[in-house]
Design goal:
The chain has 16 helices and no strands. The chain is mainly alpha-helical. It has two domains: about 170 residues, TorD-like (Orthogonal Bundle), CATH 1.10.3480; about 110 residues, no CATH class. The chain is globular, with a radius of gyration of 19 Å.
Length: about 290
């Protein structure tokens, strides 16, 4: 296998590990030198806590499908491909990226190679680098996911250094909804906290459990929105204070990321910083 072939196979394998049942991927984990996941580990990371979908991280609703999902599906269609059910899943996007790369190496004409390389660059900057570095930082906080997240981040950084940077940030960030403002009520706060593009950070149920222990409030079982509502009802000042600190931690995480992609990392850092400032103002108004 050529070095280029190993490059594409690495990306395919990393994506498959996030997408497939761990019962069918032990060969991949061993080949990559990664610890094997149990089904509970895999479900906890990729299904319950941190589903790896572009629409969740880039869509204004912070949910599967919607505007974020439509944007990715549209990219598949520009390649004359029918979008699969999980078109915006990280595993699907990495598989498509690797396929574009390996296919372009076998083209017989320079024009065909250029078209495929351009499509691959668009896929990378618009639909991968636009959200995956922050996502991987969140996965790396989970001991079960750390090795996979670090290897995936390393592979994507290598791609970012090999592809010409775009002239502008991705469309999803250029047309992102307004940041969370200090004048909004509880419902807007809850909506924003579950939509990373609104607030600039990822919030998991595990984060809320740690917050509850830190500030001394109970954390309701179930969806993050309901848990956060309960925390706000018990101690709004402490919950807002912790949330502002969480936003600032994420601003530092984004600032530490290599800022490829026309300032993508700076965009996320600025959004998280703006959220922290809004939360401080909310506390001051109470």
């Amino acid at each position: 296998m050529t070095a280029g072939g190993e490059r594409w196979e690495l990306l395919r394998a990393l994506g498959a590990l996030s997408l497939d049942d761990p019962a069918v991927t032990p060969v991949l984990t061993r080949a990559l030198g990664l610890p094997e996941w149990s089904r509970a580990d895999h479900t906890g990371i990729f299904v319950l806590d941190l589903p790896p979908y572009a629409s969740i991280h880039l869509g204004p609703e912070g949910k599967l499908g919607g505007e974020g999902g439509d944007r990715v599906a549209g990219f598949w269609r520009t390649l004359d491909l029918d979008p699969p059910t999980d078109a915006d899943h990280l595993g699907s996007l990495l598989a498509l990226y690797a396929e574009l790369g390996s296919t372009s190496r076998g083209c017989l004409s320079a024009a065909a190679t250029a078209r495929l390389d351009h499509a691959r660059a668009v896929l990378f900057w618009e639909h991968l680098w636009s959200w995956v570095p922050g996502y991987l930082a969140a996965v790396a906080a989970d001991p079960a996911g750390r090795a996979w997240a670090e290897l995936t981040a390393q592979a994507l950084r290598a791609e970012a250094e090999a592809i010409p940077e775009p002239p502008a940030p991705p469309a999803a960030l250029r047309h992102a909804p307004e940041p969370l403002g200090p004048e909004g009520g509880l419902e807007e706060l809850l909506d924003g906290f579950t939509a990373p593009v609104r607030v600039g950070f990822v919030l998991t149920y595990g984060d809320l459990l740690r917050a509850g222990a830190e500030i001394g409030v109970g954390v309701r079982r179930g969806e993050r929105r309901f848990a956060l509502r309960s925390m706000m009802e018990q101690d709004p000042d402490a919950t807002l204070r912790w949330s502002a600190g969480h936003a600032r931690r994420w601003a530092r995480i984004h600032e530490d990321q290599p800022d490829h992609g026309a300032g993508t990392g700076r965009w996320w850092a600025q959004r998280a910083t703006a959220t922290a400032a809004s939360l401080d103002q909310m506390r001051a108004r109470r």
